[in-house]
Design goal:
The structure is a single chain. The protein is mainly beta and 138 residues long. Helices cover 0% and strands 56% of the residues. Strands 2, 4, 5, 6, 8 and 9 form a six-stranded mixed β-sheet that branches.
Length: 138
């Protein structure tokens, strides 16, 4: 009988991605059991499908480690509730599960003025053209 117990102790509560974009997150997991054990992390979507499984990792009692997760966001824009599961391979059970919000949206433009005329000398009531260079940094 396994006495390892895995718990997700740090994770992002909100993740942003473009439709069908690749999302990269990092989490921290700890073994709160009495013995070493093997785990992996499942990323579970809003339809309860496992969309990503991390590599199997051995973790000793009282040890923590960081795990990088990469998954693809849905094709439709929206706000979704997804889950992360710490799956204990020694007993084939989910030891711990947390939820996070996945926000899927197209990037919105962000404009920045990068060049402009900062001083104009002209007579009163005269028209003057000012050239402004704007860059989309979004």
């Amino acid at each position: 009988m396994s006495t390892s117990y895995f718990k997700i102790i740090e994770y992002p509560s909100r993740v942003y991605s473009k439709p069908q974009g690749s999302a990269n997150i990092s989490i921290k997991i700890g073994n709160y059991g009495e013995e070493a054990g093997v785990f992996h992390i499942n990323v579970v979507d809003h339809n309860n499908n496992i969309v990503y499984t991390s590599e199997s990792t051995t973790l000793y009692s009282a040890e923590t480690t960081d795990v990088a997760l990469i998954f693809t966001a849905p094709a439709s824009e929206g706000t979704y509730t997804w889950k992360l599961q710490a799956f204990n391979e020694d007993n084939n059970k989910v030891d711990h599960e947390v939820s996070f919000t996945l926000v899927v949206q197209q990037a919105y433009p962000v404009f920045k003025v990068v060049e402009y005329t900062d001083r104009v000398t002209t007579a009163p009531l005269q028209q003057y053209n000012i050239v402004v260079k704007v860059q989309n940094i979004g």
